[in-house]
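new request in #modeling-help
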Amino acid sequence: MSDGKRDEILGRIREALRVPAPRDQSGHSSGKYPAPDRSKTVRELLPAVPADAEGRLALFREKSIQLKTDFHVVKGTESASAILKKLRDDCGWTSLASHHHSLIDPLIPSLGLETVFVEERLEPKSLERFSVGITGCDALIAQTGSILVTSRSAGGRTLSVLPPHHVVIATPDQLLPDLPSAFELLYSKYGDRYPSFVGLITGPSRTGDIERILVLGAHGPRDLTIVLVDPA
Amino acid sequence: MDQLFPSVGISVVRILEKLGHTVDFKQSIFCCGQPAFNAGFWDESRAVAVRVVEALTGDEPIVLPSGSCAAMIKNFYPELFRSTAQAEAAVQVSRRTFEFSSFLVDQLGVTDLGSRFPAKVTFHDGCHGLRELKIKRQPRMLLERVKDLTLVEMEDQTSCCGFGGTFCVRFPMISTAMGETKSTFALETGAEYLVSNDSSCLMHLQGLLSRQNRKLKTIHLADVLAST
Amino acid sequence: MASLFATKFKVRATQITADLDHRANIRTALHSYEKARDEKKGQYQDWEAARERASEIKWEAVNHLDSYLLEFVSKLTARGTKVFWAGNGQEARDYIVALAKERNARTIIKSKSMTTEEIHLNDLLQKIGCEVVESDLGEFIVQLRDEAPYHLVFPAMHLTRHQISDLFQQKLHSAPSENPEDLTMIARRELRLKYLQADIGISGANFGVAETGMISITENEGNARLTTALPKIHVALMGIEKVIPKLSDLALLLPMLATAGTGQQITCYNSMFGGPRQEDEVDGPEEFHLILLDNHRTQLLADSEQRDALHCIRCGACLNVCPIFRNVGGHTYDTTYQGPIGSVITPHLRGLTDWKHLSEASSLCGACTETCPVKIDLHHHLLQNRRNAEKKEPNLSEQFAFRAFALLARYPAIVNWLARVGRPFLPFAKVVDAMMPAPVRAWTSSRDLPAIARKSFRDYWRER
């Protein structure tokens, strides 16, 4: 197949753009809003974020509560393991899917569940029957309570979205203040070769399509747990 | 305003004269040209608007007790007259034009007119005044100083009443529905009077209220401020 | 001469504006949105400056569209994406249909894409024997009802849970329920099977990032994530105007889209896709096709006065605040894009004569322009559409009326005299209402006429 009407479309675009459009359309109204300060960065326009690590952690916790994300902060692998064991029992996990990751690998054996790793290149659809997908992440974002993942940092595209429960293991140094810093991280970490999928996850899956009433677990995971493990 | 709500004009004149200003009115002016403009007939609109531009030479401020007419002159005359012989004059006129409540508060710095209007009222923000001219605080600052007046804000204050010029007769069913929603909110406040700075809104809402035999009365802001 | 579409619009509007249940339902649905939206807006350090910045990003992109599109395409093709430039809907449909045939596709899963609705893709795919399933819950529901989406962002906003329960009972043979959670789980189970079976996943794109060659998809449910993860082929259809310069622009646009559109700080899933799966990746589609769609967008681009309508990020905020939308609902528009933005662009996409009535059906209150996160001059464009329509094909009776008015305007004294003379006869207007000209009857059908004053203002002035 050819690439279609590329030249024709570009031709029409160039022709159209020969007439400039006014930059300030708001010239119509003698608006009394003060002229916006164009020198501010995006960071200064979005909601403010505390400057200190403790403040940011508190903000992330607050967002998680609002979003119904199950958020834990623990010290050491033992404690992280304990959290996962409790979840296993409370939620009735019978099987687990994950990818190999220095933070996650030590936690798996003690759970005693049927386990599969995506590196085994199984058919992604087969992840459907697993109770939980455990992944790492690139960052957590305090401003919004979000998780930044890519197909490289979180075991592909399917692992973090198909199983009904998604668990993320992260470390405190991964907590970033805001969205601009998340994109800065992407540039610096992947700038020469981006993964084919980059995602922001903010809370468990939800919909408001029925009478605008919030329901969790529409198609993605109904449960989202984040365990922040302080290695100290 | 001339034929249907002359008291509004009379109130404006009285208030300004009481504040010590000299007021003039040009008999040759009929209409700002907005109805034709909004309907898309810009040539016909210009034919009407040109009388305004020609009559209002000079440098005195031009005051209008109508958010929609003031917005037409202030915001749209420059565009309507662009590339015509009156282009420069139109820009000058637009710079000198003010809606009445904005003139009192922003230009003259006056909020207390010594008025008295013993009643519970609610205020409707006409869309042109609100969104084209950013008029919201000014009427309220003036009403606050009126003796024995209680202002109750209605729900959804900033939603359109449904007049919209030719819209109200081109799409009467939608216009009526919007007016019904608005008048319901006004009635829910329990106010005796519905006040606005735009006569067209008041005309439309009064038309609906009268047809439904409601007790709520409409009155222009200028008439309230001229009361003693 | 009103177009057929204009006549249908008025008929439907008349029916639905009288439906007080509909009016109340829509009001309730939008009320919680308004509270949430205002709360999130209030959290910004400077919302108005954010709108200004978002508008600048879009202005930059649209006014240098050719160079950003070329950058976008080159980055995408470098990583194995197949890019196709479709001049119109037909060409886009043909490409997708040919692909489906070639790959023997039986089941196609779709995530929400207004652009695919614009080109009426589903019908054609179904004609060649593909099962096409909408995975977004709202779209899934209206698809089962064989109905168009009611709202850009909330396709099933007009339905109650009872209606949805009945629908599921009928079409999916599920147990009845009044509980939205149960109903959502029914849909989830049903759609799970489709994700796993689908041969092709078709998505739209909210943005196309030129700098890194990625499309960005915003959603809450996770259906787009699944649509783009499981099937072996991913096809994305994107309007050419969606391209933005930099990846970091999303740091502003993603939260603004959510706040304006749904009253959330940011939606649940915001995903960027830059190509098919890479060699070292464990999953993902083997093929990624991106179809760029013109379909009259270059025409709108050429209208420098209205070019900023292409800045639209399809958030739906203008629909939410529009009093016309609230009263007539999404179906009355009878076209893909509803509300103020739809009224502005549809004449450009589908013809001025047939669609000017949407620009006329507005009181020009300006709430849309005030709320638009990218500061499109919406209500002024409606005015411009009206002007363009009258220039092209004037409504002769209205033009006559305005010309007569302009003539009278030269002689205000005559009008004054007419008013004095006519005033005593005004009460009789009620009696002869049926003989009055149409515009008068349009007023008097629901409203009383205002009284002509005994003395006009100019009478008062002269007598001072």
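bot summary: Chain A is about 25% helix and 20% strand.
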